[in-house]
Design goal:
The complex is a heterodimer. By secondary structure, chain A is α+β, with helices and mostly antiparallel strands. In chain A, the strands form 2 sheets. In chain A, strands 1, 3, 4, 5, 6, 7, 8, 9, 11 and 12 form a 10-stranded mixed β-sheet that branches. A two-stranded antiparallel sheet of chain A has the order 2-10. Chain A is elongated, with a radius of gyration of 30 Å. Chain B is α/β, with parallel strands linked by helices. Helix content of chain B is 33%, strand content 27%. Chain B contains 7 helices and 10 strands. In chain B, the strands form 2 sheets. Chain B has a 6-stranded mixed β-sheet. In chain B, strands 2-1-4-5 form a 4-stranded antiparallel β-sheet. In chain B, a hairpin with a 2-residue loop joins strand 1 and strand 2. In chain B, helix 4 packs across helix 5 and helix 5 runs parallel beside helix 6. The longest helix of chain B has 17 residues. The two termini of chain B are 22 Å apart. The chains are: A alpha+beta, B alpha/beta. Chains A and B meet through helix 1, helix 11 and helix 14 of A and helix 2 of B.
Amino acid sequence: MNLFSLVLVNLFRNKRRTFLTMMSVVIALFLFCALRGVLDTLESSIKVGSESRLVTRNRISLIFPMPQSYWTRIAAVPGIKSVSLQNWFGGRDPVDPKNWYAQFAVDAPTFFPIYARDVEITEFSPPQVQVAMPAGLDPKLAAFMSEQNACVVGKRLFDKNKWKIGQTVTLAGTIYPGSWPFVIRAVYHAKDPAFGEETMLFHYKYLEEKGMGGQGQVGVYILELSQPERAGDIAKAVDAMFENSSYATRTETERAFQAGFVSMYGNVPYLIGVIGLAVVFAILLVAGNTMMMAARERTAEVGVLKTLGFQDGTIFAIVLAEAAIITLGGGLIGAFLAKWGLQGSGFNAGGFLPPMTVSWTTVATGIGIAVLMGATSGLIPAWQASRLRIVDALRRVE
Amino acid sequence: MALVEVRNVRKVYRRDTQEVPVLDGLSLEIPEGDFVALMGPSGSGKTTLLNLIGGIDQPTSGDITVKGDSLGRLKPKDLARWRSRHIGYIFQLYNLIPVLTALQNVELPLLLVRMSGKERLERARNALELVGLGDRVKHFPRQLSGGQEQRVAIARALVSDPTLLLADEPTGDLDRKSGEEILGLLERLNKEFKKTIVMVTHDPHAAERAHRSLHLDKGVLSN
């Protein structure tokens, strides 16, 4: 036996109480890290946007389109390496309307090369015919390129719906009415988790011909820069070209564009942070009260230990160590449960968020809070026990 | 020079605004190897005197010296260390730690001494053998009778080989037979191992086992 085993023995004295206290800390820290994880996820969704890519959208609002004729004009601006486009589709699953996921019409020959560093094709149909592949496009997309209504889906979406390569998925259009069959020809994996794996990408031409009547409207243009350091000037130059037109534009970095989405949450992130701290504070009071009760029950034993020669500092350390083990143990379990449980499962709050990310900073903050919790909840009972006069302590039983 | 010297000790407790004198200018000497019984009615100051000699309480005035150490001059930290070296305390209600086995309870004072775990265990086992509980090492207090619990408490008091054994009504919570066994054990410790023992008791029969009895009444020695 040693002093540490004495601490452990005391912890197991009332197993149910220790377990329940630890569980309350686990839940508190799990909630704290999960809530902070929401903020991490929102932040990382901003970071997925590159500083070296620009996004051009209609100045009035994202929901208003721009003419397709802008494409070549934007591409001619010096400093721009490549221009792609994407358009929100907004279809829904006619069988299960709750099975919602994002669908974008993209210009594949330019879109995939721009995002080559963010996504990779993991599963694909072999091409049925020889296809001339545009430069820079992954050869695995050959089958996708050869079929007008082909689509590429994220791995997670693919697995969640138990789809198969070659399967036809039919969506009901909301913005572009009608029944829209799509053939899955490839699956992508997001190398950066924040890119998300719950999106369907299909040919813009398919949407343009079937849904737009050949009018050629574009949701956003994605600009890859050859001179990223001139991003500000290039953005101004693009917007200046269309300043007095019916479709004035707003060009910003992709990161700023993504941040615009996050800002739509308003004060929700602040509220989430406050709720997380409130949960921790409530549990801190519970843990503190439990520790005080546990220490008070052993007042006479503290008297005996002191009679045997245990010093005040040793008593202080024993009681504090008990609190620290409960809160630190609970904190570690809670924080890592949030890290590996939420992040590992790809939880996305029913599509409300990108797949959850719980950063190591959040885990470290959670553990730090657990340490602080242990110190705070154990400090008072430890101090009381260490200051206890032997004769007063022994009088509790005699 | 006596092992224990109590010189003109006063002890006054405060209860709210009232002062309650418990010991009033008490002096006594206890030579090494002595076995003293402290007797007296309730509230006469027996336990208080025992606590003062054991360094677990401080006198209001006066001085107590044990083996040349003046307890009043020791800082709390040093006093705790001194207690672990010199005092073995036996309580009326045994005061064993309920979640520790008999062996672990006896091992407890040795955690304060620098020695290997193996040596600690050996000494704790020996102490339990000495009190006749070698076969109960893994028993928890709740699995022992009152007499056995008190013997574990005596083993705990003995294990660090203290200068002085202080027993506060060691038979007060036991039946006659168990009480006799405990008194026999204390007698043996005094005779065979030359342990100096100060025992508080109400029981004249128990006091007969001591070399001498001191009677306290209203905070002063009456004989």
